[in-house]
Amino acid sequence: MTACSSVASDVSRWGRSTSLVQGTSKAPGFKSSSPDKTLRSQKADEFLKRNHPGLLISKQKIRQSEAIQLVRINREREATNIGFSSRPFVLCGLPTKRPAKGALVHERRNGHFLLQVTGHPKYGIPWGQDRLVPIFLATLAMRQQKQTITFRSAAEMLDVFGMQQGGSQYRRLIAAFQRVFGATIFFGTDTQRERAIVTHQARFNFMREARIWYSRDPNQALLPGSFENEIVLSDEFFREVTTHSIPTDLEAAKALSSAPAALDLFMWLSYRCFTAKGQERIPIFGTFGLAAQLGSADYARPRKFRERLERWLDLVHALWPSCPAQISGDGEHFLILPAMALAAKGA
Known about the structure:
The chain is an alpha+beta fold. The chain has two domains: 3-83 and 250-336, no CATH class; 88-243, no CATH class. The protein has eleven helices and twelve strands. The strands form four sheets. Strands 2-3-5-6 form a four-stranded antiparallel beta sheet. It has a three-stranded antiparallel beta sheet with strand order 4-8-7. It has a three-stranded antiparallel beta sheet with strand order 10-12-11, with helices on one face. A hairpin with a 4-residue loop joins strand 5 and strand 6 (197-205). 36% of the residues are buried.
């Protein structure tokens, strides 16, 4: 075992052992792990420094570990911070890595659903952490129940997703909004009926107008005149969000903001496990396979994708220990069972 994999294993073991997540049960057919009493009530940085004093652990990894702990504590307390995502981007993911220079089209397929994203020639295709912007927009649209959504400052969005405040992060946020604003989305379905193929297709943009400002002064909540950020969602995106909104865990999105492929898998599993009627076997490869649905880049060898999928699933299990998902013994299928990823009182 390499040093890095050993650290990852220990971080996962630390996360499973905090005192507030004891008693979490695995779904039928999946093994559960007993808490290690010696690890209880320790912060992630304290645990890693003690067990791996010779390794330099990044602040980003420490923040991610603590965010994972918060997700599990909230689930135990049935206090999940509910946000919303839109159907196209749960069924099919945006690119997880920066697209090749000049690439302006991204396409993913999930069964009868097809997602095609065309980027703006100047700004390119939304990718990586840009996927947090549609979640933010969908969440505000559902909470405010209106097509013109407002929020106090760009710092509010950075805080929602656990991004550090500062000039570089603001520039990244503005660039993300530019890519999302300039993108054109094609989302369609085709269903084979008894006598004909029925198709339903829509082409839309996320936003019709956007007015966003930020201040370097963290104490300045609003500009003079109570100026707020204002975004007018497109008719099509607003209709899609309000008609087919999919609940998601905002704290989980924060924890996985720097691991977009794992975030895609978490949201996909949250939806598929909720809608499952029994055990389901989803092919990993092929036209209707999981590899064609997630926003990850294509891998030359199936073994490489399977290895990445195992890593993403480890992160999902760290957030959601009882998640009833695993890779089949032959490595060709993804097995899931009915389950609820969100735990909120009254849900």
